[in-house]
Write a structure and sequence with these properties.
85 residues; alpha+beta; Thiol Ester Dehydrase, Chain A; 4-stranded antiparallel sheet; 4 strands; 52% strand; elongated
Length: 85
């Protein structure tokens, strides 16, 4: 079984990757709120952008078990640092 820190780490990583992949922007994490709902092992994380301004990106992510049970969710704010190379 994964620890809460490991689950939170996967959520944070997925948020950053999703933003860079979908926008081509390099971002820095400003704030994050993680809600732990269940214990277990993460099978996959679904991350998406909720809103983007000129300087910030707002995103959400959910971590699921192999049985599609939601283990944790996160909301985050990221500062746009630069465009990807």
């Amino acid at each position: 079984m994964m620890s809460e820190a490991e689950i939170a780490g996967q959520l944070i990583e997925a948020l950053g990757f999703a933003i860079e992949d979908k926008t081509g922007l390099k971002v820095g994490l400003v704030s994050i709120s993680v809600d732990m709902l269940e214990t277990g092992d993460v099978a996959y994380v679904d991350a998406r952008i909720e809103r983007q301004t000129r300087t910030l990106v707002f995103a959400v992510a959910e971590a699921f078990s192999a049985g599609d049970q939601r283990l944790a969710s996160a909301t985050s704010v990221h500062k746009i640092v630069s465009a990807s190379a």
